[in-house]
Amino acid sequence: MPKVSAVLITVVSILLGIGLVILASASGVMGLQHHGDSQFFIKRQMIWLLVAIVAGIITAKFDYHWWQKWAVPISLFSLLLLIIVLIPGIGSKIGGSRRWLHLGPVSIQPSELGKFAVVIAISSWIASIGRRVTRYPEGLAVPLGILGIFVVLIFAEPDYGTTILVATVGVIIMFVGGTLLGHIAPIAAVGLGVICFFISQNKLRMDRIKAFMDPNANPDIAHQLNQSKISFMHGGVWGVGYGNSAQKQLFLPEAHTDFIFAILGEELGLIMSLIVVVLFIIILICGIIISIRAVDMFGKLLGFGVTFLVAMQAVINIGVVTGCLPTKGIALPFISYGGSSLIISVALVCVLLNISSHTLKGGDDHSPSVIKDRIHRL
Q1: Are 7 and 282 in contact (CB under 8 A)?
Q2: pTM for the whole thing?
Q3: Which domain holds residue 134?
Q4: H or E element: which one contains 106?
Q5: Distance separating alpha carbons of residues 45 and 23, to the nearest angstrom
Q6: How far apart are CA 115 and CA 154, in angstroms?
Q7: How many domains does the chain have?
Q8: What is the pLDDT of residues 253-292, one digit of tens each?
Q9: What is the spatial order of strands in the sheet that 106-108 belongs to?
């Protein structure tokens, strides 16, 4: 599928370019105040981008079946990092959450690798059991157990946004893979109830939800959301012009990371914001096409998993920044500042490219019929 792959590469390249351009503007004041260099963050992001490109090229050349063979070691290594980051004195606690590991000058976020590891592990298991996926123990208990271990560790950081993202993508893979909806639905409902219970016991999260429902009731908690909305209102249709954002003058916290889309909306306006949304929709469409046309079940499930990881992360971030979802820390793929997110996002796309390169025109599809039925229904 050279045409689909070409479109995917082009769209991601455009998003990466937009990310560098808007980051150069959004991070200037923050870099100058905290590091004495207005170009501090853009310089580091360009280094991370070079690393991401190298990692992406290597990933694109790896036969995607390699991920299936190494699913267990990758999962165990990812789980080890998720456990280590929870240890006081090792994992860094920032903003009430312990999400980062500092290795000298480099910081990594284990949950980024964890997202990919979940997709690999569940896809590998479902592909290995074939038609037994419709049975209760094989099709539900094992993949749900895999998902549950990762979700609990990410939830313990706590990182509710990534928890919901990983849980949702895991359930999508199980459904597309053939796990019966009657098996998934009750468990998903219980899981959602458990998450809601713990959120209700967390004052900070409840305050954020209340601020989301009524921003005027608690302006301090809703400050980030209110400033983000001001950015879009200030930008209007065409924007105030590149580099002219008022909100990046330390009015909007996390202007170069989780809320960078608000700065884009302020400086470049509604039109460019919608273009970015359309670009992510194109990634979703390309990913689905590649997944449907994959030659085996593992390729289909892996493709769907990585596609929805990127697409849903974009949905959550844009939903939060525009005030459609409660505030949570989720980066905007390819655009937000951050090495871990950038490298994993590029790698995920390159996994799709490798799956696409193995698609045989007119080749036989050896996936079980249940997989074909689920995919064609989509």
Answers
A1: yes
A2: 0.91
A3: 2-377
A4: strand 106-108
A5: 9
A6: 10
A7: 1
A8: 888 999 999 999 999 999 999 999 999 999 999 999 999 9
A9: 91-94, 97-103, 106-108
